[in-house]
Amino acid sequence: MSSTTKPIRNFCIIAHIDHGKSTLADRLLEHTGTISKKKMQDQVLDNMELERERGITIKSHSIRIDYNGHILNLIDTPGHVDFTYEVSRTLSASEGALLIVDAAQGIEAQTVTNYLLAIDNDLEIIPVINKVDLPNADIENVTSQIIELVGCSKDDILLASAKTGEGIEDILTTIIDKIPPPDEPKNEEFKGLIFDSIYDRYRGVVAYVRVYEGSLKKGSRIKFFAHNTHYDVDEVGHFVIERKKADSIKAGEVGYIIANVRDIEHVLAGDTVTNFNKPCKNPLPGFQKIKPMVFSGLFPSDAGDYDDLRTALEKLKLNDASLSFEPEVSDALGFGYRCGFLGLLHMEIIQERLEREFDLSIVTTSPNVKYLANLKDGSQVEVQRPALLPEPKFLESLMEPIVTAEILTPVDYIGNVMKICEEKRGKYKSTQYLSKSKVQLIYELPLGEILFDFYDKMKSGSKGYASFDYTFKEYQTSKLDKLDILINKEPVDALSMICAKKDSYHRGLALCQKLKELIPRHQIQIPIQASIGSRVIARTNIAPFRKNVTEKLYGGDVTRKNKLLQKQKKGKKRMRMIGRVEVPQEALLAVLKI
């Protein structure tokens, strides 16, 4: 039976982080004989060392499974909130989804978000309770949570253990029975959705494509809708663990295209690819350019590593089009790069990869979000770092990004969670009970407030049980201040921040006191001030070293003593006029951490 006549099922797996998505994918591959026992390893689709170590999926992966006369295309998705757009593109490339829920932890925030995304894409949902072999599995409670969320019956929910392999056969049978085959193509012209891409140093960008209409073979000329560039196709094929060359890829199939593309910016997730000579009329809906949400400065600890840092960032960008960076100069930290990230996890991963894969030691400024400044002349400017904020005399108002946050918590901790959200300037929206013991809270929160310790407070306030997810909503005008830190009356750009008016005094005071502990004493008194515009709101002094110049006197007239003290005073004054305070890097780092 040739592959062309075999019925196709395209499906993906969605779940909260650590609910066993990658392990379940391993069992499906093992059970269907797609991968031999000899080659089998844990998290076979997570090929990055960081993915294995943290147990999270960072890049989407795709694999073709041949089973019972059917072709099953499994498209693995990232599980974290930062990668929601990639997840939505993967979902739109599928006809069905396995919704995995941990038997011990129940439904969590990202389970709900990804489920809603799947519903938006009209997918057939197959709920699966995983980890049923755990001693603390609460199958009855989790079943009622799933029924509440999905509105299915108890019989529709499959029980499985990805660790032991229990229930895998049922899952495969249900995929074939319940998930519909791809729609019949309406046109002959080739139309494909790019849902991800990777960079191969020998072949260029490899585009992961779900084909909707027509077919594509080697030698065709293709073009991308997001920008009118065109390329000649070198190779097409399918993913069976490794890339497997094919004569063509046809409607309904998932595969890859290699066309010697050297710029990853040309192959964007969500874009439509078509034949250059016979193009389709309209692109597939849903494409948007990924915009960074969180910004941070990356500086090499050793100024000599600046070129190495640039090379490392360029190499990372080859596999991650959502990373953006541009050169930046800081008075305190020297030359470095201003980088834009999708979110905090994305930022953490990039930093860790720079340190591990490229052996770089880097200093990171505290993360901040992008603000919009409305000026008095009616124009609007983007502010990616506090130092670039226009002066108050030109400023009409400041707008900050607001996100819709979804928090799932056990009922016992509702009070703690709500208190934390109120402290972070959250606006309460709604409450929904998913079961007797679990509740969903919806809040609108400023993104800038989530960057600092929000997640930690949420976890400690709920003893680790609450989970949290957010989506960007809009920009709103807010009462904000730019807080500057002056050391010896010189502003330190790396320590500037934009914060809420009500928090500025406490933040300024905390920073001044921390710096007082960390900056070593000098021969002169060093004032440390926190200011908003020209108004100083907090101050502390580092006392100078003092030499006892009258020590060698042994009596005599008091004027001798006064003369020596006056001489010392003049010297100190002269020193203060020309003296510079060197702020040690450790001090800056410690302050950036608080």
Topology (SSEs and partners):
Elements: E1 8-14, H1 21-31, H2 49-54, E2 61-67, E3 70-76, H3 84-92, E4 96-102, H4 109-120, E5 124-130, H5 139-150, E6 158-159, H6 168-178, E7 191-200, E8 204-213, E9 215-217, E10 221-224, E11 230-232, E12 235-240, E13 242-246, E14 248-250, E15 254-258, E16 272-275, E17 294-300, H7 306-319, E18 324-330, E19 334-341, H8 344-357, E20 362-364, E21 368-369, E22 371-375, E23 380-383, E24 395-410, H9 414-423, E25 427-433, E26 438-446, H10 447-451, H11 454-461, E27 467-478, E28 480-487, E29 490-491, E30 497-500, H12 501-518, E31 526-532, E32 535-542, H13 558-578, H14 585-593
Parallel strand pairs: 1-3, 1-4, 4-5, 5-6
Antiparallel strand pairs: 2-3, 7-8, 7-16, 8-15, 9-14, 10-11, 10-16, 12-13, 12-15, 17-19, 17-20, 17-21, 18-19, 22-23, 22-24, 24-26, 24-27, 25-26, 28-29, 28-30, 28-31, 31-32
Helix pairs in contact: 12-14
How would you describe the overall organization of this protein?
The protein has 594 residues and is an alpha+beta fold. The protein folds into five domains: 3-178, Rossmann fold (3-Layer(aba) Sandwich), CATH 3.40.50; 191-275, Translation factors (Elongation Factor Tu (Ef-tu), domain 3); 294-365, Alpha-Beta Plaits (2-Layer Sandwich), CATH 3.30.70.870; 372-478, Alpha-Beta Plaits (2-Layer Sandwich); 482-593, Elongation factor 4, C-terminal domain (Alpha-Beta Plaits, 2-Layer Sandwich). 27% of the residues lie in helices and 34% in strands. The chain has 14 helices and 32 strands. The strands form six sheets. The chain has an eight-stranded antiparallel sheet with strand order 11-10-16-7-8-15-12-13. A hairpin with a 3-residue loop joins strand 7 and strand 8 (204-213). Helix 12 (501-518) packs antiparallel against helix 14. The longest helix has 21 residues, at 558-578. The chain is elongated and about 110 Å long. The N and C termini lie far apart (64 Å). The model is unreliable at 43-48 (pLDDT under 50).
